Structure formats: structure tokens, C-alpha cells
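Subject: YcxB-like protein domain-containing protein

B.,
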Amino acid sequence: MEVKYENQPADIQYIVRTRSTWALAEMFLTAPLMVLLAAAPACGMLLLSRYFVAGVLVIAGVIFSAGWLFWKVRQAIRSSKVIPGVIRLRITPAFLDVEHAEYRSRLSWLAIESVHHVDDALVILQPMGRGYIVRDSFFKSAEAAQQFFAAASQYHASTKAVDPTVSDRSSLPAWTGDSSRHSISYQNTIAQWTWALKTIGAANKTIFTYLYPILLCVGSNGILAYMTIGDFRQADGGRVPLDSTFELFLLMLLLLISIASSFATLMLLRELANRVRIPDIWLLPKTVDIYPQGLVSGTSVGTSAIRWPVLGAAYRQKELLCVDDQQGRPTVIVPASAFPDETAAEAFLADMTAWNDAAIEASASIDDTLIVAESVDDQNPYRSPQT
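Prediction pasted inline below.
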């Protein structure tokens, strides 16, 4: 069974509707709450001290920052960048094929997290929010849409093993036959993917890396408490004299360190929580081939080929060589340790960034259409002009 459709920026709303109330609260509130919690100790101490006015001003700034983050998250959840063009989605009992002018992938149903029908759309989700959304209007009829959903649900529920055809490279685009390429095989760790889910510092952390911001947080908040609400008076009850300019500078410095170290501590705690959420399929052995035209990544549960112009930046982040997707999230993470030596890693990185930059520059005009891809249906709500 197959269907042809086009993405629209607002289609991400269908993914949102598959989430539980708890998951939605986490999506919307995690970032704003982390800002509020990071600033709470310092703000509380200022309010309990003679620096009450400063505390009020800081709280106002923190609330504004949290509100701004909430608005940014809301905007990101309301719509997302899409690659314009017709997509052909074909499903079989063993896998689903996705074909677009810019990319091609074949995934085992084991790589699919869930299959939903929400309102008037089919939603096939991969782990961590990626997936495929097909509105019912792209099917010939409401019955056809329901049959497709029923088949996808059955295939997903019944798949117990990977079919060898999932890794069949004969289904990939012609450009993947180019002799100019680099190939590397590796296996990601949980730490590398938790880093990709937004945290601070390097992917591979030591115990000291976790302890440092905690100690800084405790120390800065302790000194701030001593300056604001602590008992630092002389025996005769007079206040220890401090130069007002120096005192103000020290207070502001401690305030910044306190908030920053508290936020870093919360980020690291969130990272530890994210470690248990990394899907097993992200940790499977993987092979990545890069070409002047794009890259191919493959595991035992799926193979994808995508051209550089519809990917994000290619770069090195310390010990990791990364390629982002259009949302700015790492989609390929190659550890430098997978190469025989640093020279090989740098050669891979040099060609990867050069090919990525050249292709994106040559197709710069595509950026102007990434967020306006829409299709207009005729009078039949179940028949698109593309079908």
C-alpha cells in the first residue's frame, strides 16, 4: 500500500495530539521551569535582605525570560520547517519506504515507536518525536485512509524481527554510487545521544564534571546568603564596613554565578534523567557514508540517504563529528575515536563540511521555501491534486 502526500508546517500539531498530558506539560514547561528554579535561591535571598528592590528587579527579569522561553517552545511546537515536495510513503509487512526528491529511507517497523490516527491524519512516529504525518485528504477516500492506518497498525504490532531487505542498498538513489566517498562504522553511546538532546559540556563526562557546577552552586549561594541575610555584624551591632561599589560588584557577580551554576546543575540532572530515555535502536552499530551529494546512514533496522541541501550544518564538537537536521538537532553523531587516527578523522570532517557547505550554498534558494510548503485540495476532501 502507498500514498503520496506533502508536509505542511502546521502538521506538527498532529504529533502534539498523540502526546499525554504529562508529556505535553514536559514539552512546554521544562525550559521555563528550569530558569525559574535556577534563579529561585538567589531571588529568595535578595527579597529577605536589604536588597529587596534588587530582588524584585531580578525576579521580573527571570519571569520575562521564562515567559519568552515558553513562547519560543510554543512557537516551535505549533509549526516546524518542512522540505517542500511530494513524498511517497509505501508500507509492507516488513518495512516502510519513504521517497522524496531529496531523500530516501527504508525502515523496519522495529524502528517505529507507534502508529496513530489523530483527528484527520495518520501519524507514524519514530522515537523522540520524529515521524511521518499524512492527512486523510491525500487518500482517495475516508475508507482508504482507515485501511492504510489499519494495515500500518497491524504491521507495526506483528513485526518481531528485521527483514534483510531493510538494509538493501539497491533501493537508494543513484548518487550513492559515486566513487568519491568516505565510509565509517561505529556505535554511539548513551552519553553521546543525551548530549544531542541539549545539555552542557562534553558528551563524555567525568564525575568531576558533574560535581563542579554543584560545588560552584553551593559555594556561590552560600556566600550570597552570607552577604544578604547572614549574620555578619560586629560585636557592637554595627555592620562590617564594605566599600559600596565593591559590595555591589561582588553582589552582582555572585548573583550571576549563583543563577548560572544552578541552571548548569539542573541541566546535568536533566541529562541524567534523559539517559534512561535513549531508544535502543539509537545504540545499534551504524555505518555512515558521505558523498559530495549527501550522506547515507544505515543500521540493522533502517537505511536512509539524504542530500546535503536539506540537512543542517556539519561540524565538530570536541570528540564528536556531527550533522544536524533542519531543526538544528544532531541527526548523525560520529565519535572521533571510531577512526584509526586523528588524521583520518580530520580528513573525514574536512570533506564532510566542504561538501555540506558547497551543496547548501548552491541550493540556498531552498531556504526561502522550507516553511511555506502547502498544498491546496480540490472540492473532494479526500482527493489531493497530487494523487
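Residues 231-241, 366-387 have pLDDT under 50 and may be disordered.

T.
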